[in-house]
Amino acid sequence: MVRYLSQGLNSIEELQNAAYAGLQDVNKADAPLLSNTSGTFNTVFGAEAWMQLNQKTNLFSVLPKKTFQQSGFRIETAYPATLGTGGTAESAGLPDTIKPTFEEAELVMKRIQHTYSDSDIKEIRFNSNDDDLGIDSVRRSVQSFHIKTINKMLSADAGTAAAGVNMESIDRVISNQAEANADTGNEANYDIYGFDRSASTSFDATVQVSAGANMVKGDVRALLSGIDNASGDQLTAFIANNSVCDLVEKLYEDQIRYSGAARLTVGVNGVQTNAGDDVQLTVSQVAGIPLIRDSDIANDFLYGVNTEYMFIEMGLTTQNEESAERLLTGVNGTKGVFTTIGELKCVKASSQGKLTGPSYGALA
User: Fold this and answer.
1) Which of 101, 145, 315, 324 is most open to solvent, judged by the fewest CB atoms within 10 Å of its CB?
2) For 215, phi and psi rounded to 5 degrees?
3) What is the pTM for the complete model shown?
């Protein structure tokens, strides 16, 4: 039986250990270990899928994973007072108390599931050395699809459709009122966590639009300045699809700000410098910030993420269940399912940003 263990646990490592019983470092396993018993809860293949999700060079691996605690949360939308004020005269009493402005938001967990099956006759043929594929081949194919699909959800275009039952995308998190209102007829697609984007700037991120037909270095500088002015925070990483990364690297290849290659790790805790449940990567740097490629990203935008304030909350790390009990599954053979429960969460949109509108002509 699947155990929903996220509540009461303090770290993603505790959730992994509870879900996989110490198997989260498994990267390969043979089929006989997995499918010799009917009605099996498959910690090995669940752990394998989870680690593949975190070891791919993609958006999912860049973002830290945390355990789900509660649906409601508060977002600070304004400073307690005007910046640069607070001086008092020598004989003055204490000034009036101040407080920040908060708005309430709601995080709805999303369940991502993909099922597969194989007939008993097909398994008989496979086990008789007939030229056929067994349940192991089907399982691995669906496992890869499950992994790819979750990253695709995180990388989707906000304007195309609302997330619905799928996970939110960073494009929807990193948006603002102006972008929502500019997409006439699709304004509601930019709403997130209960915020009506077209009606309020409370959850605005920095959206820098290229001024000209081509991306220029000034656009990247303007993005960084905009995020700093809005939040006072620095980016953890840039992430974009291959076309945009090629453009940025070419744009900065003869500049001091293009710092060449950097070594970093990604995993359950996002972008890190220390090895753990991670995989080491060699990536480019722009303005001292890692530039990470992800071919799944739908839009030709350059995204800047601050992973202190944007992460994925997990209710259930990837699990795999299989059963050959006909009366339970309704299948004459084996039926299985991969399940992951979680959602993208951002508690400070002003710390995130994106550069939109680049094209791939001559560089300025």
Assistant:
1) 101
2) -70, 135
3) 0.78
